[in-house]
Amino acid sequence: MHEYTSTARVWGLTCPGFPEEVSRARRWTRDILRGSPLAEDAELIVSELSANAILHTASGQQSGSFHLALAVSPQVVALSVTDDGGTGTAPKAEHADQDATHGRGLGMVSAIAHRVVIHDSQAGHTVTAELFTSVRLGGHPC
C-alpha cells in the first residue's frame, strides 16, 4: 500500500438526546468493533462522551441529539461525539477532588485514549478520541 493512501472505513449514527441512547451508542460501537482488541476501550469512551453530551449540553434537552462517528483504519480507531452545544464552556478534562460528584469522565477518556481532541463551533462541540492500533515504545505513531 502506498504510504499516502489508507483503507479507512467510517460509520455514523445520530441519536436523540435521551439517556437510554447511551446504551445504544455503546452497542453500536461494540458491534462495529467486534473482535478488535480496542473494542472495550472504545465502548467505554463512547459511553462517557455520549453521556456527557446528554448531561452537559443542549443535546439532552427536548428535541436535542448527538452524533457519533467511528473511523477505523489499520493504524487508528477514532471515535467522535458531536453535541448540540448550548453551553458557555467547552468540554475539558478536569482534575476533580476525591469528594466531587462529577468532573472525572473526560479525564478518564484522556487516560484511555492515545489522543483526545476537542473542536468547538457555533453548532456545538466535537470530542474525538483516538486509539492507535500499535504504538512503539518511546515512539510516536506518526
Automatic annotation (TrEMBL):
Species the sequence originates in: Streptomyces mirabilis
Q: Which InterPro entries match?
A: Anti-sigma-factor_SerPK, HATPase_C_sf, HATPase_dom
Domain Histidine kinase/HSP90-like ATPase as annotated: residue spans: 19-129
Which terms does the record give in the GO molecular function aspect? ATP binding
**The entry's keywords:** ATP-binding, Kinase, Nucleotide-binding, Serine/threonine-protein kinase, Transferase
Check the record and name the Pfam families matching this protein.
Answer: HATPase_c_2 (PF13581)
Name assigned to this protein = ATP-binding protein
